[in-house]
Amino acid sequence: MANFNTFKYASAFLVVIFCVGVEIASGPGSSSSSNNRQDEALAEIKHLNYPLSTDTINYFIEFANDYNKKKFRMAPCNMAPDSYKNFQTTKRDGVQILFVGDLEDPYALGHFICVSHKHSEKKVYIYNSLGRRRIPPATELANKNLFPNATSTKLMNSQTHQTDSVSCGLFAIAHATEVMLGYLPELCSVQLSTGQYPSAHLREHLQYMIEHKVLELFPSAGFYAEWQIKHF
Question: For the whole prediction, is pTM greater than 0.85?
């Protein structure tokens, strides 16, 4: 969940909510403009008390599409459910990060979640960092447009929940990464930081993945120190 008082560009974001699409570059590493986009994404990720914007989420989506070995293809994180009709997945598993609106919170501008489609089960699993909270109808419509063969959805309870108002995008990225690497997010935990900024470890790992062009599981609870020794 993203709190109104923590958004750097709150007024601009309110306008973006009503836009249909986001233009995609040809790939995260394809041009100097893409390098600028990476710098902008990393700068945002490093701000410990800012939520990730849709631009940064979409940068990760392009990055993950290029570097996941199982060839998952996520669509841009648009906010109009009908836009997902152009990215339907009907014959294989899928994963997607979605913007789901304010979840009836008067102080929130928006919230990101991860959904996973199991083709063999005809089911969509929903991973929400706030727990098994009700999902708005627009999200159900987005799922239907993305995965038209699915006959049911199920809200899953993750091992680790968001404890602040700015980490929803990081959790959605962590869950999408787990799915793309062949893991079940409901069985994975992530290591939160102690102190004022619980998302610090998540941000550090996301920064590492982008800078080193690799997808890796986010450090699980109790194993962050080992991850830090291995990578730094």
Answer: no
